């Protein structure tokens, strides 16, 4: 039976990493521990996003991960990422996940093809129609090479399955454009460091990389950001979060979690490799800073 979570009750969603063994296989024991940590912090869990290296996994691996986490019956909601550029395959993925006890989808922009407003509207509408759960659209032009325009959001604003938008363009002005296009849309920051600013502009929460390394601390960071009563939040967190993006995500966060002893290896799927991060001083310093933060 699927728990009837109100997804708006979860202002922090952790874009969970996928831990691997030295041989490159999914480490399910480590995965279970990571899920338990997020559950203890009361954070929503996003599986198979870019931080989870979802597109570097085979379909069987993707299916096995979602099924395995569902079998753990966590007490927090599960969102599953939908990404790629083959619409038929993505619809099939949504239909497969519809059969599992999940609670939402993150719908990424189609990769590589760079469609315009009409193509994007058709893409998202097709996925929203296939879904049995609330959906968060994902605007991250740095990864998809195409930017969702407010017109696309306006075109989809009345769809019953459109719940939220993950806004990761880093532009507060674009955030305002989305709010105007669909005032009822829940907008989440896709950039950890900008959460205090997005909160002031009306963001409902954060989809986070940092929460992998610091589950409870990031939960408190989001809580304080949304309260608007802690003006020094950006100063406290900025340099620490920047260290997690010194090279391509999720390389630094995986290296840090390995140093923390929370995953057995910092292994990633090619073309990513932990060898890109030649020095770990900055993430070690960030870890010490955040773990002592209050």
Automatic annotation (TrEMBL):
List the Gene3D superfamilies.
Answer: Aldolase class I
For molecular function, the Gene Ontology terms on record are: 4-hydroxy-tetrahydrodipicolinate synthase activity
GO biological-process terms attached to the record:
diaminopimelate biosynthetic process; lysine biosynthetic process via diaminopimelate
Family affiliation: Belongs to the DapA family.
List the PANTHER family hit by this protein, alphabetically. Answer: 4-HYDROXY-2-OXOGLUTARATE ALDOLASE, MITOCHONDRIAL, DIHYDRODIPICOLINATE SYNTHASE
Q: Which top EC class applies here?
A: lyase
Q: So, what pathway does this thing act in?
A: Amino-acid biosynthesis; L-lysine biosynthesis via DAP pathway; (S)-tetrahydrodipicolinate from L-aspartate: step 3/4
Protein name listed in UniProt: 4-hydroxy-tetrahydrodipicolinate synthase
Specify which residues bind pyruvate according to the UniProt entry for this protein.
Answer: 51, 207
Q: Does the keyword Hydrolase apply?
A: no
Q: Which InterPro entries match?
A: Aldolase_TIM, DapA, DapA-like, Schiff_base-form_aldolases_AS, Schiff_base-form_aldolases_CS
* One Pfam family it belongs to: DHDPS
Query: What Enzyme Commission number(s) apply to this enzyme?
Result: 4.3.3.7
According to the record's subunit comment, the protein's assembly and interactions are:
Homotetramer; dimer of dimers.
Name the job this protein performs.
Answer: Catalyzes the condensation of (S)-aspartate-beta-semialdehyde [(S)-ASA] and pyruvate to 4-hydroxy-tetrahydrodipicolinate (HTPA).
What main location does UniProt list? cytoplasm
Q: Name one GO cellular component term.
A: cytosol
Q: Where in the cell is it found?
A: Cytoplasm
Name the active site residues: 138 (proton donor/acceptor), 166 (schiff-base intermediate with substrate)
Kindly state which reaction or reactions the protein catalyses: L-aspartate 4-semialdehyde + pyruvate = (2S,4S)-4-hydroxy-2,3,4,5-tetrahydrodipicolinate + H2O + H(+)
């Amino acid at each position: 039976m699927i728990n009837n979570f109100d997804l708006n009750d979860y202002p922090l969603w952790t874009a969970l990493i996928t831990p691997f063994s030295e041989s490159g296989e999914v480490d399910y024991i480590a995965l279970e521990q990571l899920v338990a940590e997020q559950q203890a912090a009361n954070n929503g869990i996003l599986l198979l996003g870019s931080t989870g290296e979802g597109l570097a996994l085979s379909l069987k691996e993707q299916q096995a991960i979602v099924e395995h986490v569902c079998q753990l019956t966590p007490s927090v909601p599960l969102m599953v990422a939908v990404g790629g550029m083959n619409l038929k395959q993505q619809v099939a993925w949504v239909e497969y996940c519809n059969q599992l006890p999940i609670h939402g989808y993150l719908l990424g922009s189609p990769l590589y093809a760079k469609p315009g407003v009409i193509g994007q509207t058709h893409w998202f509408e097709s996925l929203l129609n296939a879904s049995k759960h609330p959906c968060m659209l994902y605007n991250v032009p740095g990864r998809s090479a195409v930017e969702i325009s407010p017109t696309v959001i306006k075109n989809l604003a009345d769809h019953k399955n459109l719940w939220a938008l993950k806004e990761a363009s880093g532009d507060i002005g674009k955030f305002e454009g989305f709010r105007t296009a669909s005032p009822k849309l829940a907008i989440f920051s896709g950039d950890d460091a900008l959460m205090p600013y997005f909160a002031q502009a009306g963001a409902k929460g954060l989809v986070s990389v940092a929460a992998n390394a610091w589950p409870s601390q990031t939960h408190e960071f989001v809580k304080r950001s949304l309260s608007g009563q802690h003006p020094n939040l950006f100063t406290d967190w900025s340099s620490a979060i920047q260290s997690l993006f010194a090279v391509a995500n999720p390389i630094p966060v995986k290296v840090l979690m390995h140093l923390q002893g929370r995953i057995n290896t910092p292994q990633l799927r090619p073309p990513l490799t932990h060898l890109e991060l030649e020095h770990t001083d900055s993430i070690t310093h960030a870890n010490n800073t955040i773990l002592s933060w209050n």
